[in-house]
Description:
The chain is built from eleven helices and 18 strands. Helices cover about 25% and strands about 20% of the residues.
Amino acid sequence: MTTxxxxxxxxxxxxxxxxxxVSIRREKFKPLAGPDGGAGGHGGDIVLLADxxxxxxxxxxxxxxxxxxxxxxxxxxYRAGTNGEELVLSVPVGTVVKNAAGETLxxxxxxxxxFVAAKGGIGGLGNNALASSKRKAPGFALxxxxxxxxxxxxxxxTIADVAFVGYPSAGKSSLIAAMSAAKPKIADxxxxxxxxxxxxxxxxxxxxxxxxxPGLIEGASEGKGLxxxxxxxxxxxxxxxxxxxxxxxxxxxxxxxxxxxxxxxLGSYPVPExxxxxxxxxxxxxxxxxxxxEARELADFVRPEIEALGYRVFEISTVSHEGxxxxxxxxAGLVEEERQRRIVEEPEQPRIVLQPRVGREAAYRxxxxxxxxxxxxxxxxxxxxxxxxxxxxxxxxxxxxLADRLQKLGIEDGLVKAGATAGSTVVIGPxxxxxxxxxxxxxxxxxxxxxxxxxDLRVDPNTRRTxxxxxxxxxxxxxxxxxxxxxxxxxxxxxxxxxxK
Length: 501
């Protein structure tokens, strides 16, 4: 039965915005008193909250699909729809949130950190908000937009000051139980610990957390055993404690060979950019199980060789608690030194200064795409895409309102600059989007220059005839008919043919 999960994919669906309402206010002796349709409510967001009381992602492993509440629909008498309730998902402190492409969105290392993982949809305006001096009684309302939907990866990296590393059954869990109030599962067979255990140690006035990393064997950094799944929990630790088993009965094993193999695996594990490599962090060595006479003799024998490698060595027993006090104070010293170093080296967080935007970003962009059926012009941008999503295309008045909004945004000028002509295929939004044939709006205020830069359709040949060309063709046809009648009259006068009576 699974009790600990440190990596899971969650499928999120934020709430959909409610539709606006189309309503007309009715009063005594005044049945059409004006629009009074209310706006729809906004969809609920999905928020991730770093909670110190949560220690595992097991709940999301069992229920990976999470959906927020939709916004309510607007109603008459100016009644707005209710906003969808925010869905708060508590995750352990130290959770890293990644998108589908594997990019890190946020590292939730501080308790209380909030991250909006899925933004709810926007509620549509009612016809009351759409009324104007030119449109006194709109017969349409805007639709609510869909909330964000997608998949995120939650990856837990245990936050501890000291990591206990070593071979299976070296006594790491027993050491945590002896030094803290933690009660991990302890047994005399390999891979008893299937997930990192955390404990809090008090050494004088210094309090720090410890964690064991289970399943480290030769080849762990390459995926053997369980080590690859849990080595990432060492990334955040300030110091390492090598727990070596001096009472092992396995052939070919001894404290020196175990230490060499664990060092090799730690050195082979790639840490994220900007972090100190695992082997470059402060390290101590604990020779465990010296309560066994043979183990004490072996510890006394290998201690000088380990100290020659530059390590401080402590002989301990988790059964008799011998040497644990000295070890706990030594670890506390390493932790305190690291904390002081971070205070000095870490730069001061910059002050956040809010300033108005100097310039306005482009509200849209026109992208030209070639295809089997000719050139296609795609319009991308937050505003036009949202406006299309809010339009009820079964309502002609709503479609006309969309056309007015797009024209005011300058879409037609952008299409002309991109080389679009009347009848060109235009798509709004990514993917299939909304497809239509563009017919430009020409007003008396300005002349629309139809054509790409460097060309003029008034000079270049065009398959679409202009009014001048139609008049010229008509005049030529009339002249040809008049010439034909005159020719017949000349032939008749010359006696070439007589009219039958």
